[in-house]
Write a structure and sequence with these properties.
With 269 residues, this protein is of the alpha/beta class. It has two domains: 219 residues, P-loop containing nucleotide triphosphate hydrolases (Rossmann fold, 3-Layer(aba) Sandwich), CATH 3.40.50.300; 43 residues, no CATH class. It is built from nine helices and twelve strands. The strands form three sheets. Strands 6-7-8-3-9-10 form a six-stranded mixed β-sheet, with helices on both faces. α4 crosses α5. Bound molecules: adenosine-5'-triphosphate (ATP). Adenosine-5'-triphosphate (ATP) binds next to α1. Adenosine-5'-triphosphate binds next to α1.
Length: 269
């Protein structure tokens, strides 16, 4: 079995007497891409926020390389984890290249300047996300999808062991949805990403976690998790699942005008 880079056990988060996350437990094996799926409000962002220490959970354990995240200094945590958040933040007065170069910070001392190798790393990351022509453009003037790609380039420059992506494809056109996730996969980094598009999650992820109302409903391979029954129960839509003609993992076709009844979805054969 491959080494685990991240272990989450018995994780609970309550706020205002409401349980947002309940007894979440999973591991992220080295080099794998783990997809976090579930309906709006299921707790996907909250779970990811716990992993990068933006939220302190009510109880439970989160360990990176078998060490509790509470024991990591901010700098050491940033050397291990890079995060691309759901809403692209504002960075005024910064070129795209300067934004991407921020990814070097966790590896630098206070007075270190950037080396030729650092600059090469920034150019390489910009090229990988197709933004080499936009290097000198103000970051704020990029389109939503270009901003998202710039933030992914910054995460690449950061050279983390674990990449946390909160809806990394929500601003991207279909070409970049596929290309960016394939790029991220090719880096050999361990990735946990929340993804709304179940077909994209099926194609790209090694394993999936299905969340609903803060609870872990299923975890396993796309074939194990993406079943017609589970999709109808959790998302409230009816669908038909076949094997994708290219990669052989589940390919979901949604039905329109059907809500699951107490007996489930109608038989569409
Ligand atoms: N700081 C907070 N205080 C109170 N409630 C919160 C807080 N943060 C999140 N929640 C609630 O927790 C639930 C889960 O939210 P979260 O953003 O984690 O869901 P999500 O699965 O990422 O949703 P989406 O797919 O819509 O992005 C929601 O009901 C949300 O309102």
């Amino acid at each position: 079995m491959s080494e685990s880079v991240l272990d989450v056990n018995h994780l609970f988060w309550q706020v205002d007497n409401k349980t947002i996350l309940a007894d979440i437990h999973f591991s992220l094996p080295k080099g794998q891409m783990l997809g976090l799926i579930g309906p709006n409000g299921a707790g996907k962002s909250s779970l990811l926020r716990c992993l990068y220490r933006y939220i302190v959970p009510t109880s439970g354990d989160i360990e990176i390389f078998s060490k509790p995240i509470s024991e990591y200094s901010s700098k050491l945590l940033a050397q291990n984890i890079a995060v691309v958040q759901q809403d692209t933040p504002h960075y005024f007065d910064m070129t795209t290249e300067q934004l991407v170069a921020m990814g070097l910070t966790p590896h630098k001392g206070l007075f270190d300047s950037n080396t030729a190798q650092d600059r090469e790393r920034v150019v390489s990351a910009l090229t990988k996300v197709g933004l080499q022509q936009k290097a000198q453009q103000q970051y704020e003037l990029l389109s939503g999808g270009e901003k998202q790609r710039a933030l992914i380039a910054r995460a690449i420059v950061q050279q983390p062991h674990i990449l946390i992506l909160d809806e990394p494809t929500n601003h991207l056109d279909i070409r970049y949805q596929i290309q960016i996730l394939e790029l991220v996969k090719s880096l050999g980094i361990s990735v946990i990403a929340s993804i709304h598009d179940l077909n994209l999650a099926s194609a790209m992820c090694d394993k999936l976690l299905l969340l609903d109302q803060g609870r872990l409903i299923a975890k396993g391979t796309p074939t194990e998790v993406l079943t017609e029954r589970q999709i109808s129960e959790v998302f409230g839509v009816c669908c038909d699942i076949n094997l994708h003609p290219q990669h052989g993992k589940p390919l979901i076709s949604y039905f329109y005008g059907y809500q699951p009844s107490p007996k489930g979805c109608p038989d569409h054969d």
